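Workshop exercise sheet. Pairs work together: one partner reads the sequence aloud, the other fills in the structure field after running the prediction. Swap roles for the next sheet.
Pair: D.N. / O.F.
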Amino acid sequence: MTRSELIAGLAEDNPHLTVADVERIVAALFDEMTAALSRGERVELRGFGAFTVKSRQARAGRNPRTGETVDVAQKSVPFFKAGKELRERINKPAPAAPAKKKTAE
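Structure field:
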């Protein structure tokens, strides 16, 4: 799902809101989450999961085109851990399709 698909779906589910209002809401939500993560805070959405920032140490890498060794600087990367409810909903077995009846000819 893309950001525009999310906005379109939310606007469809909430006809009392304009698409512009939904866009501002989604942008504000993402901005707040990004700001919290940049401050090193954890962002937890109950029933969905938690976003945290992990630090990757500096290391020696390799340029795949030339094979030359390059230094890769230390960096922070976002990390997502799915919540229990999300994992259960994703792994829930799909309902079995009803069997087709054979017709007598």
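Discussion prompt: DSSP finds three helices and five strands in the chain. What would you look at next?
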